[in-house]
Write a structure and sequence with these properties.
Blueprint (H helix, E strand, L loop, with lengths): L2 H20 L4 H5 L9 H21 L6 H6 L7 H4 L7 H21 L13 H23 L21 E4 L2 E5 L14 E5 L2 E4 L5 H9 L11 H10 L7 E4 L2 E6 L2 E4 L11 H10 L7 H9 E2 L4 E2 L46 E8 L19 E9 L15 E4 L7 E2 L3 E3 L4
Bound molecules: fe (ii) ion (FE2).
């Protein structure tokens, strides 16, 4: 299969997945905004088409917009999330017709395009990869919304793998100069450029923190102990009366959590998820540790000390498979801690990609030498201390998006994302 055939197949596969995710969603759930934090799913759906029209069809052909109004309604900055439920939105059939027309134009352009162009937007199919990753990321956003919406998304949930019994453990990473980031010609700008950084020795958890460990944090009264929390975290916890991760409720039988509308006992084997950065930070303090910096996280995931180079994925260069990582929306849940020994990094950390995004202590800042590409709005407006970096990928992330260098970011109080964490501590002798 040549590159054009591969792209056409990938585009079809991406759209098929979006349609599969939305098929069980009844029209009311599709078009209603249940929470100001998230868009009605139909907004994400139409926005996928608008992004493709704007960044691919219009850029490559200079064609006038199919419908000028759509470019405003489905522009993420012009129409922020809080406003999306009040806008007049396309219904499912109209959005599907619009997406199909954009896609018809995209495929027509694919026939003509030359990938060896001097235009970096086109070279090696960059812009196609951009829109594919964008659609994949909105599929994950749609799942966040569906987790948050009342009622069941699916009648039956997938069974989880068994995992293995593991003891909490930490991995030692010696001090050194390590490469960080990527120079490969793919999205996104904030991963560029590859550069070396000096790190002191550190320890990092071999596994993400589990629900079982987090239950002990709760049982120790940690939500009531101000000294464990940052100043902002304590204020957040107090104002909102937070007592446990999002979607958890307490009954006579213990803690339960809602998974797409199914109320289930909290499974102590699973990585904790739906916690804010504030909760992750307080947990780390309670455990006598701290959150890793994003650079420490990346070295623990990517560095191969024998080959003296970084890997694309923790396990190497081979694309993810269901045996290596819990990605791609298969399980609709994190898998038990210890379920993917074959996906371990060279340094020994497990489940770095898949299951849950992992909060780090780092603010979202540009790397030295950063250049916005292909558009400033992707990363630049978010740089600063308002957002913390998350690394890895969740069970809802599609494999094309998952890689060791990928940088996600969000506000410290966000809990609807599929995020957990692991802890680190300062080095010393191994
Ligand atoms: Fe988007």
């Amino acid at each position: 299969m040549d590159l054009k055939q591969q792209i056409a197949a990938d585009l079809a596969e991406a759209r098929q997945r979006t349609h599969e995710l939305l098929a069980p969603v009844e029209d009311e759930r599709l078009t209603t905004q249940y929470d100001m934090l998230m868009s009605p799913p139909v907004w994400d759906y139409a926005h996928i088409g608008v992004f493709e029209e704007l960044w691919l069809v219009q850029r490559l052909s200079g064609a006038p917009p199919i419908d000028e109004e759509l470019l405003h309604t489905y522009n993420a900055i012009e129409t922020p999330r809080v406003a999306r439920g009040r806008r007049k939105l396309l219904d499912r059939p109209s959005a599907a017709t619009y997406l199909a027309e954009v896609r018809r134009r995209t495929l027509a352009l694919l026939e003509e395009i030359e990938f060896d162009s001097s235009d970096p937007l086109v070279r090696d199919g960059f812009v196609y990869d951009l829109i594919l990753q964008h659609e994949h990321q909105h599929d994950e956003t749609i799942l966040q919304t569906l987790q948050l919406t009342p009622g069941r998304y699916r009648e039956r949930l997938p069974d989880l793998p068994g995992g293995r019994v593991v003891e909490p453990d930490m991995v030692y990473v010696p001090a050194g100069r390590y490469p960080i980031g990527s120079d490969s010609h793919e999205p996104y700008d904030n991963e560029h450029p590859c550069h070396e950084t000096e790190l002191s020795a550190f320890w990092i958890d071999r596994f993400p923190v589990s629900n079982g460990e987090y239950l002990r944090f709760i049982a120790h009264g940690s939500y009531e102990r101000e000294e464990l929390w940052s100043v902002d975290g304590w204020e957040w916890r107090s104002i909102f009366g937070i007592q446990a991760p999002e979607y958890w409720t307490q009954s006579d039988e213990g803690w339960c959590s809602s998974r797409f509308g199914h109320l289930l006992p909290v499974d102590p084997r699973l990585p904790v998820s739906h916690v804010s950065w504030f909760e992750a930070d307080a947990y780390a303090r309670w455990a006598g540790k701290r959150l890793p910096t994003e650079l420490e996280w990346e070295v623990a995931a990517a560095w191969d000390p024998v080959a003296a180079r970084c890997r694309r994925y923790p396990w190497g260069e081979d694309a993810p498979t269901p045996e290596l990582a819990n990605l791609d929306q298969r399980l609709l849940s994190p898998a038990p801690v210890g379920a993917y020994p074959g996906g371990a990094s060279a340094l020994g950390c497990e489940q770095m990609l898949g299951d849950v995004w992992e909060w780090t202590s780092s603010d979202f800042l540009p790397y030295a030498g950063f250049r916005a590409f292909p558009y400033p709005e992707y990363s630049e407006p978010f740089f600063g201390s308002e957002f913390k970096v998350l690394r890895g990928a969740s069970w809802a992330t599609r494999p094309r998006v998952a890689r060791n260098t990928f940088r996600n970011w969000d506000s410290r109080l966000k809990r609807q994302i599929f995020a957990g964490f692991r802890c680190a501590s300062d080095g010393g002798a191994a």
